[in-house]
Write a structure and sequence with these properties.
Two copies of one chain form a homodimer. Chain A is of the alpha/beta class. Chain A folds into two domains: 131 residues, Four Helix Bundle (Hemerythrin (Met), subunit A) (Up-down Bundle); 204 residues, Rossmann fold, CATH 3.40.50. In chain A, 40% of the residues lie in helices and 17% in strands. In chain A, the strands form four sheets. The first copy, chain A, has a seven-stranded mixed β-sheet with strand order 6-5-4-7-10-16-17. In chain A, α1 packs antiparallel against α2, α2 runs antiparallel to α5 and α4 crosses α5. β14 of chain A pairs parallel with β6 of chain B, so a sheet runs across the interface.
Chain lengths: 344, 344
Amino acid sequence: MVNAVEWKEGAVRLLDQTKLPTEVVFVDCKDVETVAKGIKDLWVRGAPAIGITAAYGIALAAMKISAKSFDDFYKQLLPSCDLLAATRPTAVNLFWAIERIKETAQAHRTEPPDALKKILLEEAHAILREDIAMNRAIGKFGAALIQKGSGVLTHCNAGALATGGYGTALGVIRSAWEVDKKIAVFADETRPVLQGARLTAWELAQDQIPVTLITDNMAGFFMKQGKIQCCVVGADRIAANGDTANKIGTYSVAILAKEHGIPFYVAAPSSTIDFNIASGDQIPIEERNHTEVTHMGGKQIAASGISIANPAFDVTPAKYITAIITDKGAFKPEELIKLKISRA
Amino acid sequence: MVNAVEWKEGAVRLLDQTKLPTEVVFVDCKDVETVAKGIKDLWVRGAPAIGITAAYGIALAAMKISAKSFDDFYKQLLPSCDLLAATRPTAVNLFWAIERIKETAQAHRTEPPDALKKILLEEAHAILREDIAMNRAIGKFGAALIQKGSGVLTHCNAGALATGGYGTALGVIRSAWEVDKKIAVFADETRPVLQGARLTAWELAQDQIPVTLITDNMAGFFMKQGKIQCCVVGADRIAANGDTANKIGTYSVAILAKEHGIPFYVAAPSSTIDFNIASGDQIPIEERNHTEVTHMGGKQIAASGISIANPAFDVTPAKYITAIITDKGAFKPEELIKLKISRA
């Protein structure tokens, strides 16, 4: 399995996912500006992978600072944190990872800057390792919910490519496959950026897990035909009440699932839950470049002289979510509060 | 307004809609085989336009027959009818138009073949003229149902390009616009063939009707935002109970509309109703070439080594349909039987 993000010889190595599935290209980011560009331009995407990338990006920026005092070091580090925080507004993991690195720096303020640089890099490594471990836990809890022989619909890519490895929604699918549940996966292609067609289908094909690619508007058809027994998606941010921001189209999938009596699961590390916001209404939705809708591979596919909308995410209200599968177990949306108590 | 299909100097002139919106190319089909290819390869699409094209295709085939007797003439005409009938399985207008031309021939069997050729061409012209008149009637009945200032969502292209002119769903939209209802149109791009992005958006832009293009998976998002007050789509075949076959994704739009309490209208000439089938379960669904999903403009956009599904249509059960807007008026699905009685 390729890594979406890793630390490689003093650089942040990103798989340029915009080139998939026809090309597998890695970019070694040697400065934080390139890391920020990589997040913004979707070389790396998926909330957990974005968080890991940002952590490494700060560690990379730290390497270049020549400061004698902590205060001086920290002051020089902050602009890089701000640069990274400004790349994508919706994924909470981005802000969470940046805060964690900043707190790590503060916690070790008595260390000399050169030692601190190593500590920050170690912390980024820890975030990556923990992410993979969390995904394996999510996978185990999720697989228990999936009936043998199920058709499982997923939307976008919440896979190894969206995380440190193994994946969240695809972690559930991988885990179910590994324990021989004999599932069949349906992958929504996920317009406009086609993460389902380009990434999820590619990732599952690499692991020999059977996958059928459909366009987003076919999901209802296959639910009605009885081919889909459950839905599993990732999350970019989950509010305290369970409302979940995820890739545009997730909300529609959840409504279709409800109408067909099919369980709808969200799989995400517990760090995706933002207890600072009471409901999904407070989650900012990123509007992306309109050429993502009007062009494909540089070719114009839509009429000229029209308006375009391109919200990158939508919010699925908690009432449509059967359970949120985390590294701490699967919870009904109204039970998330238990995680807050255990986090405190 | 360009014509999707017309009779031009002894040929069937089709607008090659696969080239839109970047190129406006007409093909003069000089034999029935080219007409059949034009239907199969989607140069012309949309149930009413397919019917008109098939009628002209038979008239064109008739021109080339040199027979002395009616029986001989008719026997030579049948293979062309069969060829055209085999192009697309779902649109009832195709079979309806072919039957109408065959019946016209039978009704004039005492005419010499050369006179009959003119009669068949006149009948094709009549089908085209009647289609436009029906669309204007549909538009008028439909516009009455649309509230001033509404956001109107449409899926695929049921416009001038899908008909003899003016359109069915887009006829309703055009008519509402003409009577100053100040509507704002949302057009689903309609993967995989992008009829919404390429055709509906283009057609409405030509008429200066405001249109916002969205990907199919954004419809729920904009309904939740309160931007969409009703949905209007076309139909490829309507069963006696009101179940409606239309472009893949229509069923999902109908469910989303129901969940948001938004009326969902089907606009179609009454000839689209197939009283020979009791319910939508009996409507065959065409499975189209998988490269429509995996490639765009010749470029591969999906992973290799995976399964693909490409049903071209789905069936929306009558229970999701607020009204079926026909040239005879708007009917609740359970009221369609009135049209059967008036047709008998």
